[in-house]
Amino acid sequence: MPEKQLMVPFIPQDDAYCGPSALAMVLAQQNKTVSVAALADEMLLPARGGSLQTELKVSVRRQGYLAYEIAPELPALLHEIDAGRPVIVLLNLAFNWYPKWHYAVVTGYDLSKQEIILHSGFEANQHWSFTQFENLWQRGGRWGLLVLSPHQLPPDSAQEQRYLQAVLDLGTTSGPDVAQPAYQAAIQRWPDNLTAMIGLGLIAYQQHDLVLARQWFQQAATQHPDSAVAANNLAQVLLESGDLAGAFVWAQKAVLADGGAPARDTLSQVLHALHAE
């Protein structure tokens, strides 16, 4: 596509608030309104005069979204714009030895003019040459971030393990219930993904749904017979469900798969329950 322009609401950026402002713009594009001040309270580091990438990603997750870093290359960035996803980028507007960090939002491009279009500072949809943008982006480490809804299928550009790590991080920050739809979306995209099966099994277990937890752990253990974690989790659920024979089989498999202390502990619990019968 020779050119593309996304409709992204614009919010002027003060120097120290460029991170919160950039995130507020991308959230607004997804119909979620959060004030810059509220985001700034979460992510600003006064001693640094702004926000680090880590704080920005944590703030994304606190809002209930996945923070997914794109591949550090211009074609990857243009692909996301083509797909309708604005990208938060980190730029260094000064020098490597005396950096001036700045977050902007890439909203479009024009191949015929070799230009990137972005919200930056106090002006919306600025047109920068590819060369200018590449220089400043290179100094910023070619860092680009997507803000993804956990309820949507992973982008076709998503790398499987990187996406699942983003889901794990979302669960850690905002809780398993928030991450659950992202695991479900991941399993639709990658039906054999072990991390997604384990994640869904653990969420079901935390919700006291042993039947559903058993189904996910059974699927994980069957499709990934070398996974000690899947075997051990299945053994634990079978034990709590009263299926001691099944629990014994899978606890042994977990130990043999080098599941370490957790697997040995589960096997010990199963043996104790069998002896108590």
Description:
This protein is an alpha+beta fold. The chain folds into two domains: 3-148, Cysteine proteinases (Cathepsin B, Chain A); 191-276, Alpha Horseshoe (Serine Threonine Protein Phosphatase 5, Tetratricopeptide repeat), CATH 1.25.40. 54% of the residues lie in helices and 15% in strands. The chain is built from twelve helices and seven strands. Strands 1, 2, 3, 4, 5, 6 and 7 form a seven-stranded antiparallel β-sheet that branches. The model has no long low-confidence stretch (mean pLDDT 94).
Strand content: 5-15%
CATH architectural category of the largest domain: Alpha-Beta Complex
Sequence of secondary-structure elements: EHHHEHEEEEHEHHHHHHH
Amino- and carboxy-terminal Cα gap = 69 Å
Decide which structural class fits the backbone: alpha+beta
Protein name: Tetratricopeptide (TPR) repeat protein
Organism: Tolumonas osonensis
Pfam families: Peptidase_C39_2, TPR_16
Domain Peptidase C39-like: 7-119
List key phrases describing it.
54% helix; Cathepsin B, Chain A; 277 residues; 2 domains; alpha+beta; 7-stranded antiparallel sheet; elongated
Task: Present the secondary structure layout.
Blueprint: E1 3-5, H1 18-29, H2 36-43, H3 53-62, E2 66-69, H4 74-82, E3 87-92, E4 101-110, E5 115-120, E6 123-129, H5 130-139, E7 144-148, H6 160-174, H7 176-189, H8 194-206, H9 210-223, H10 228-241, H11 244-256, H12 260-276
Antiparallel strand pairs: 1-4, 2-7, 3-4, 3-7, 4-5, 5-6
Protein name: Tetratricopeptide (TPR) repeat protein
Domain Peptidase C39-like: 7-119
InterPro entries: Peptidase_C39-like, Peptidase_C39_single_dom, TPR-like_helical_dom_sf
